[in-house]
Amino acid sequence: MDIILFTCVSGIFFQRSIGAYQLAHFLRKHGYSVQVIDFTDYFTSEELISVIEKFIVPETLAVGISTTFYTANEIKPKFIHNDRQKFDFLELPENILTIIEYIKNKNQNIKVILGGAKSESGKTIPNIDVVIHGYAEDKLLDYLNSLSNNSKKKKKHTFLIEEQTTVQPKIISNDPLDKSFSIEELDHRFAHTDIVLPNEVLPLEVSRGCIFKCSFCAFPLNGKSKLDYLRDPNLIKDELIYNYETFGTTNYFLSDDTFNDSTTKIEKIHRVITDLPFKINFTTYLRLDLLNAHKEQISMLQEMGLASPFFGIESLNQKSASIIGKGMNVNRAKEFLLELHYDHWKEQIPITCSFIIGLPHETTESIQRTYEWVKSNPINSVFFPLALTSKTYYKSEFNTNTQRNWICKNWTFLVQR
């Protein structure tokens, strides 16, 4: 293979994350052979070496590592930790560090490239040649085309190196001027070498960016306009048909920061999905206040195959919710969740919610009240992540507004409970 990409299980869901596969598809279309090695958090170092030996050849150009879902080993089993600084830096697992060293010992010409959401924290990891910030399709293609040992087609590269020292790797963060990638025209395909499993829930990217700019959220396309960076619905339909005919796939996680940010968007996707000769099931991120304001979306989502929505409620304390950009009245939020469960979805669609611990104005008591409400009502699954500032390349207001006491001083109470 020309390029090998490492990734791991996606966060709170046991599933693939789309990033590495999106890059693989894009690079394959530009003439590169690519192998994705997934679920690496379940491999031993010896197993990973055995696997990578199948794909490394003298012509191999690079190994890419997606940082997005790797978590420090001592945090991952607990999701809590006394040392807050541990959350601020990426800690690659031992097997990946071993693989990096093994690759460099085997062939110094193979470039090791770090990308993904935690790329900023990976700049000091040994043996990393390049760190790419943000969406990586054009940046990675451009970098590969610029390599002197690349025997494939070359073109003049347009990326700029932001910094380069004798210690740190090259940093690539600006978008190239001549974009080859367009999310609107994405025709993604999983390859047979991606080893899609029977009945697997596959990720499928619908759009990029979010129309909101919540204070805790740091992504490059936050605050976009509605219908920006939306895939052609007919290309989504083509991908669904390809996956069904090739792998028998009918279960999906629709990757979208806010799937229901526009009724027009829901209508477009509803039209192509309900026209399929088979039924699909999917889960996705939905915004509760938008569903409350545009109730025409409710039946369309169910007709499309909504199997379980994920609502980022974040807080049932009104002051906390308002200050982070969640303006829906918290009492109405509770009422509407029950209305959805009982009246609209007739107890057939399980609901998942998340609530952030450590927001301004939250207390031990308010979090406990939230927990008690969730426990006594039909919320099928719930997550209580900690509000922590992280050293990422893209900054949220949590990171940049030092005048506000964003993080609750009592956040460590979780450790004791």
Layout: helices, strands, pairs:
Blueprint (H helix, E strand, L loop, with lengths): L2 E4 L12 H11 L4 E4 L7 H8 L9 E5 L27 H13 L4 E5 L14 E3 L4 H10 L23 E3 L28 E5 L27 H15 L3 E5 L7 H11 L7 E6 L1 H6 L2 H9 L1 E9 L3 H6 L6 H15 L7 E4 L8 H12 L5 E3 L13 H4 L12 H4 L1
Parallel strand pairs: 1-2, 1-3, 3-4, 4-5, 5-6, 7-8, 8-9, 9-10, 10-11, 11-12
Task: Describe what you observe in this structure.
- The protein is an alpha/beta fold and 417 residues long.
- The chain has helices spanning 19-29, 45-52, 94-106, 137-146, 233-247, 263-273, 288-293, 296-304, 318-323, 330-344, 364-375, 397-400, 413-416, and strands spanning 3-6, 34-37, 62-66, 111-115, 130-132, 170-172, 201-205, 251-255, 281-286, 306-314, 352-355, 381-383.
- The strands form two sheets. It has a six-stranded parallel beta sheet with strand order 2-1-3-4-5-6, sandwiched between helices. Strands 7-8-9-10-11-12 form a six-stranded parallel beta sheet.
- β11 (352-355), α11 and β12 form a beta-alpha-beta unit.
- The chain starts with a strand and ends with a helix.
